[in-house]
Amino acid sequence: LLIATNNHVVEGNDTLTVTFIDEESVEANVKGTNSSKDLAVVAVNLNDIKDSTKEEIAVATMGDSNEIQVGEPAIAIGNALGYGQSVTTGIISAKDRTMDGYDGSLLQTDAAINPGNSGGALLNANGEVVGINTAKVSADSVEGMGYAIPISDASDIITDLMNQETKTKVSEEEQGYIGIRSEADVTSDLADMYNMPTGVYVSEIIDGGAAQKAGIQRGSIITAINGTSVDGMTALQEQLQYYRAGETVTLTVATAGNNGEYESSDVEVTLGKSAQ
């Protein structure tokens, strides 16, 4: 059973648990994540779900967020403050909004979105999913500014995450390492300013490490691992928790060309045994 949610809901967690409408809880694993788009898919083994629980599960109908109009009704579903499932209503306040730290445009709604709503559905009046609740503006002077990822923008990414191999974390002793040091992430602001891709800026290559053996150069930017985008060192370290030393992974690495433009290529790296 595959469930779409936000990346910030699953990142940094040692274990994941999915609780269904009948209060049954089942352990889940990460299927795939995309940190720059704040999307994730988690997987629950069907054999772990009781038959009575399966009967309560319904698959949502996808809408078309490209066709939605400002002023249309909006319904936000989630687990606000962890009290259990809740529903709030409002309208679509705006389209094509931007927010610091998010790579893309968002739907704005005045339907109340609070901590715990993240990853929940934003529905239209027909009950179709038009967005995935992701954030709100929290300030004393602000009220009714919540944001959702447009489902039409998210669909292809979710499909890609669904098709990735289910991930399970390995022990710290078994974990593999790339063999780099990074003193700075290329954030979305820096990327826009210097025409660089977002990711992990490689400040130093460790002698004898996996990166050196693979030919990765200092000054390169790591943007993805096995197809999962990483927008910084935290996201990269999060992904490395799923791979053992000795495993070979594919890193997407951007390097600056003679014209200053960055060009991406895939590099196979056999992970090392320690951070060195």
From TrEMBL:
Keyword Nucleotidyltransferase: no
Keyword Membrane recorded: no
Any matching Pfam family: Trypsin_2
Listed GO MF terms: serine-type endopeptidase activity
Domain of life: Bacteria
InterPro entries: Chloro_Bact_Ser_Proteases, PDZ, PDZ_sf, Peptidase_S1_PA, Peptidase_S1C
Keyword field: Hydrolase, Protease
GO process terms (BP): proteolysis
Domain PDZ: 167-257
PROSITE patterns reported in the protein's UniProt record: PDZ
PANTHER family membership: PEPTIDASE S12, PROTEASE DO-LIKE 8, CHLOROPLASTIC
Protein name: Trypsin-like peptidase domain-containing protein
